[in-house]
């Protein structure tokens, strides 16, 4: 079945990935992550490092412009390596609100530099600002329970979709956050609110899980990804071991 799925959906993308240049919890550099993902068989990756509201590796005392420049380094290193080896690399980030986190796609460092108000934005304001730029907001691992997450907070009106499959929750190699119930609750939540479902590995090093989203066609940009998710295009989700349809049902 896995071979049949991969033949039907040959373009696999890691949508949730961290680099040590920008995320304090990451163990591998952007270029190392790019090489590992290319070797695994990914068509492309989204670099989604932790922003100022999460576990960032960047000095919060820097000026805004310098902070963004430093923050983008992991992506830029991954992008340069991706260009060299034939891996598509797209920019994103993981926004943190006291433990509640969102994956932001479709913007770039230039937009961040020109939008300093995002630094103090509420969840609702974040959604508005990102949408005005043509971007997308996905609620990352909404039901994860950890010490750094004081409570589960849900914002169905202020997101475009839900990370329903997070490989750290269910992959056999995962050493943290491992509880498949987190994903089961996310699938149910997305179904209840008719929100598109996404998947990623939440990977912090080159010991890959293989999670992500697979499409029938190659993505040419982050905006292409946004269109695919928001328009109801056909795709499948995976934690690297199990495959799901876009409604969160395991493909037998």
What tags apply to this protein structure?
single chain; 252 residues; alpha/beta; TIM Barrel; 32% helix
Structure description:
- With 252 residues, this protein is α/β, with parallel strands linked by helices.
- It has a single domain (2-245), classed as TIM Barrel.
- Helix content is 32%, strand content 22%.
- It has a ten-stranded mixed beta sheet with strand order 7-6-5-4-3-2-1-8-9-10.
- Helix 2 (30-40) packs parallel to helix 4.
- The radius of gyration is 17 Å and the shape is globular.
- The model has no long low-confidence stretch (mean pLDDT 97).
Briefly summarize what is shown.
The protein has 252 residues and is an alpha/beta fold.
Shape: globular
Q: What is the CATH homology-level superfamily? A: Metal-dependent hydrolases
Strand order of the largest sheet: 7-6-5-4-3-2-1-8-9-10
Counting DSSP E segments of at least 2 residues, the number of strands comes to 10
Q: What fold name stands as the CATH topology? A: TIM Barrel
Which stretches are low in confidence, meaning pLDDT under 50 for 5 or more residues running? none
**Largest beta sheet, briefly?**
10 strands, mixed
Distance between the termini: 7 Å
For the residues shown, what is the average pLDDT?
A: 97
CATH architecture: Alpha-Beta Barrel
How many whole angstroms does the radius of gyration measure? 17 Å
Percent range for β-strand residues: 15-25%
- Total of DSSP H or I helical runs spanning 4+ residues: 9
Return the CATH class: Alpha Beta
| Helical content band | 25-40%
Number of domains: 1
SSE string, helices as H and strands as E: HEHEHHEEHHEEHHEEHEE
Helix vs. strand class: alpha/beta
